[in-house]
Design brief:
This protein has 346 residues and is an alpha/beta fold. It is built from twelve helices and 13 strands. Homodimer.
Length: 346
């Protein structure tokens, strides 16, 4: 074997990276990854006649047509991604850095920026998990970022950022502002889609992953066609496979079911929050998403003790000290989680 110093051959930005850790732990009740507990098994029938020998529709025309109608935007305002993760990659590849984002937030903004060798500017949220506007605007002035990512509702804190602050950033940053609305379907506010026509630098990102279709890896962005046109240049030709396109199209047509699943998750989120708030030593944070962040006296012990009972949540220790994050599951799963949480002795 011809031995080589592989580490030395890797770009230094990549060598210093820590890979996103999508842990696969065996468990009975999986409440760690912000997936929906409700799937679309009937939609799978749509792949029956699929031709596996042909490449997928590179433009995902039917899927985009459906999304465009639902969102009341033009087809040329939509770009499809293999999950919104891929679109984050494409956006940074297109516009470059510095890339600015608040922390804690979704870790992929930072990981991809680093992988692509772009400067990262991470600005801590304030005590209410809202944007620190003064700090952001001052960094905008001094560092002149090319891209700003705002996840609203924010993962892992669950809250929406103040719309006024977000608007100030869109109006005063002079760069592309991406509002990541992965969790918008669970929020009480309408989101930023209606503002697209007023701000050319605004990009909205959405995904099907949180509404029952995580396995498909299908996300999309909505923006001015000029932006879509530029980002499309770095898109790999067949990035959304035929299977995903077909199932997504069928599932998106099941509007009633989709709405009812979202309604159940929102009502279970309310119940979970109320019940968690009654437990000694637990502080849940209000959420507009399909998960709840909560602080707990001894997070390591709580995590292990839940896992011991087969319930997997996410330990947010690295991002928000003393906190765990639980995804809203089916009613029975949530009840089992609450029972297990009450039984922990600190
Ligand atoms: N944005 C946010 C805020 C997320 O939390 C996630 C998933 N954890 C994503 C984007 C990525 O979603 P997708 O499955 O579409 O890649």
């Amino acid at each position: 074997m011809l031995a080589m110093n592989i580490k030395k051959l890797v770009k230094k930005e990549v060598s210093g990276l820590q890979a996103y850790n999508a842990k696969e732990l065996p468990c009975r009740i999986k409440l760690d990854a912000n997936e929906s507990p409700y799937g679309f098994s009937a939609a799978l029938k749509a792949v029956g006649g699929l031709k596996t020998n042909r490449y997928p529709d590179p433009e995902a025309k039917t899927l985009k047509g459906l999304l465009a109608k639902d969102l009341r935007v033009g087809k040329d305002s939509i770009l499809q991604g293999n999950g919104s993760d891929e679109l984050i990659y494409y956006l940074i590849a297109t516009f470059g850095g510095p890339v600015l984002y608040p922390v804690p937030t979704f870790s992929m903004y930072g990981i991809i920026a680093q992988a692509l060798g772009e400067k990262r500017i991470a600005i801590p949220l304030n005590g209410e998990f809202d944007l620190d506007l003064r700090n952001i605007l001052s960094e905008v002035k001094s560092e002149q970022p090319k891209l700003i990512f705002l996840s609203s509702p924010n993962n892992p804190t669950g809250n929406c950022f103040s719309s006024e602050k977000m608007l100030k950033i869109i109006e005063n940053s002079g760069c592309i502002v991406v509002v990541d609305e992965a969790y918008q379907p669970f929020a009480s506010e309408r989101g930023f889609l209606p503002l697209l026509k007023d701000y050319q630098n605004l990009v909205i990102m959405r995904t099907l992953s949180k509404i029952g279709l995580a396995a498909l890896r299908t996300g999309f962005l909505i923006a001015d066609p000029l932006i879509v046109n530029e980002v499309n240049k770095v898109r790999l030709p067949f990035n959304v496979n035929s299977l995903s396109q077909a199932v997504a199209i069928a599932a998106l047509r099941e509007k009633k079911e989709l709405k009812s699943f979202i309604g159940q998750i929102v009502s279970e989120r309310r119940r979970l929050f109320k019940e968690m708030a009654k437990i000694n030593g637990i502080r849940p944070y209000p959420s507009e998403a399909n998960f709840i962040l909560f602080s707990v006296n001894d997070p390591k012990k709580a995590y292990a003790s839940l896992l011991n009972k087969g319930i997997l949540v996410r330990n947010m220790g690295d991002a928000v000290r003393g906190c765990l994050r639980v995804t809203v599951g089916k009613p029975g799963e949530n009840t089992a989680f609450l029972r297990a949480l009450k039984e922990i002795r600190f």
